[in-house]
Inverse folding.
């Protein structure tokens, strides 16, 4: 039987939605307005494994053909800072000043960059730049888009080729025949379960994709308007209740922070040095929770101020700590997760698309905020030591709460530096370094029992961040390479378990054990987690 795959964090619909959202009526007339529609990719970028902007990494057709049968599809209203110029040029370098000034959103070069780099149509860029753009409204449109074909079986998908010249010289049918796995799906279906019963039924079927909805960034609730006095915190609370009570399907978890200030909790430093020429994420970066943030995180979890479950607050939406600053995570564990665990309310900690930082504690991360330059690594020089990644303290909390870690496929997040970018490390070795680093951390942690140490292998899965404009690991640029990845992973684990010093692999006695571990990582762990925690 073919190996199945899951992905704890990806954006299956993102490319199609961003491309079509501002011209909906046009695409509806051509019967193309659907999450299944493939926006034709630049194959050169795909073949070379370049940054995932010119090609799709995980659209539904690729997911279907790559045997991804469980996907945690993240709704993400694009943060406007990505398409706006800098308010202030924080540089004395002449080149940086010229670039910063010339790429302000009031000038055409900015639109040109977004259109060609992010492959977002100019009309969409203009909308995000405009005063009309509203995160909450965008979230609801995105939700309606992914819901529209849930439960429907399609005969085949549509393909949209961008650009007049490409449409003249390219034949979509011929391309679909030549690159079938990339562009064509037949008799395909995805389902967003309305309940745990529907979830269980969907997971039993290999003939459909089970899609779980998540949200990336609390800004999606419209929290940017808090600092402008254009919305009250009570209105944010009402929006949470609307999601819980009126949306047809539940939201499983929310990535609480993202790249920029959301007025609720500080975000981890995430943008490399070159990106600072165009983007400024300093406001509230590496800070902790605000008073509003403490209220909202409790309401999402369905807890009152005394950490008691409050049925009036609705079902529990879990919290994803990826992008949350080390200060925020430190507060979250100290004031919510640990106290609740002590009284028997286990709140699973999710880190949906991360790497291992190689750092011991969150306080160590906090002490090193000032060192987070492009290639800042841990002492072993294996890992990206920025606080956007998880440390040993995070791993302990994930294990103790039966949480889940998703392995990002972003090479920078996983520890690729300028020097190692073109080396053989930029492949399965890099991914295994991060997986093994997490396992060794758990097995070496005196705060974990022997049973808990072994449990770390049930707390890891894929969390690629595909379609999040990442620069993927060489050899695995899309979900179509998942099978190759799994076979490569079996090989390296088989080699590693033969080392008598590898206590973290001592439970593997045969190749069959190794294959079972890889099956768990690729699919079973995520399935068990969602079955245990689905909110309805």
């Amino acid at each position: 039987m073919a190996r199945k795959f899951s992905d704890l964090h990806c954006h299956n619909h993102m490319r199609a939605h961003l491309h079509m959202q501002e011209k909906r009526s046009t695409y509806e007339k051509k019967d193309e307005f659907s999450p299944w529609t493939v926006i034709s990719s630049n194959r050169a970028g795909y073949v070379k494994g370049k940054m995932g902007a010119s090609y799709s990494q995980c659209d539904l057709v690729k997911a279907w053909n790559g045997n991804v049968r469980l996907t945690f599809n993240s709704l993400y209203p694009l943060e406007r800072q990505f398409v706006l110029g800098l308010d202030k040029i924080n540089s004395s370098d002449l080149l940086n000043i010229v670039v910063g000034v010339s790429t302000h959103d009031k000038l055409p070069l900015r639109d040109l960059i977004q259109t060609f780099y992010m492959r977002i149509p100019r009309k969409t860029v203009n909308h995000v730049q405009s005063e009309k753009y509203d995160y909450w409204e965008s979230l609801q449109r995105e939700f309606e888009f992914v819901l529209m074909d849930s439960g429907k079986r399609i005969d085949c998908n549509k393909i949209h080729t961008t650009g007049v010249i490409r449409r003249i010289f390219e034949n979509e049918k011929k391309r679909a025949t030549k690159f079938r796995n990339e562009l064509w799906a037949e008799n395909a279906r995805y389902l967003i379960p309305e309940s745990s019963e529907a979830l269980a039924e969907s997971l039993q079927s290999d003939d459909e994709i089970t899609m779980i909805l998540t949200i990336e960034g609390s800004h999606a609730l419209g929290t940017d308007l808090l600092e402008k006095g254009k919305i009250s915190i009570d209105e944010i609370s009402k929006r949470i209740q609307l999601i819980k009570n009126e949306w047809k399907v539940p939201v499983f978890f929310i990535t609480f922070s993202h790249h920029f200030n959301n007025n609720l909790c500080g975000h981890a430093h995430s943008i490399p040095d070159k990106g600072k020429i165009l983007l400024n994420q300093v406001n509230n970066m590496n800070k902790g929770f605000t008073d509003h943030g403490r209220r909202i995180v409790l309401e999402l979890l369905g807890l009152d101020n005394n950490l008691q479950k409050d049925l009036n607050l609705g079902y529990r939406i879990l919290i994803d700590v990826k992008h949350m600053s080390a200060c925020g995570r430190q507060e979250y564990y100290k004031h919510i997760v640990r106290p609740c665990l002590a009284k028997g309310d286990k709140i699973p900690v999710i880190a949906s698309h991360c790497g291992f930082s190689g750092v011991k504690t969150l306080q160590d991360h906090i002490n090193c905020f000032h060192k987070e330059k492009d290639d800042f690594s841990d002492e072993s020089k294996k890992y990206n030591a920025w606080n956007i990644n998880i440390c040993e303290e995070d791993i302990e909390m994930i294990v103790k709460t039966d949480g889940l870690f998703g392995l990002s496929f972003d090479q920078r997040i996983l520890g690729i530096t300028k020097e190692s970018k073109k080396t053989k490390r930029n492949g399965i070795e890099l991914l295994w370094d991060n997986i093994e680093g997490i396992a060794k951390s758990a097995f070496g942690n005196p705060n974990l029992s022997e049973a808990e140490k072994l449990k770390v292998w049930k707390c890891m899965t894929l969390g690629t961040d595909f379609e999040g404009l990442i620069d993927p690991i060489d050899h695995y640029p899309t979900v179509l390479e998942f099978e190759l990845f799994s076979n490569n992973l079996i090989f390296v684990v088989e080699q590693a378990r033969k080392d008598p010093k590898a206590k973290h692999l001592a439970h593997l006695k045969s190749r069959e054990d190794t294959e079972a571990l890889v099956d768990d990582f690729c699919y079973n762990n995520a399935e068990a987690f969602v079955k245990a925690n689905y909110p309805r």
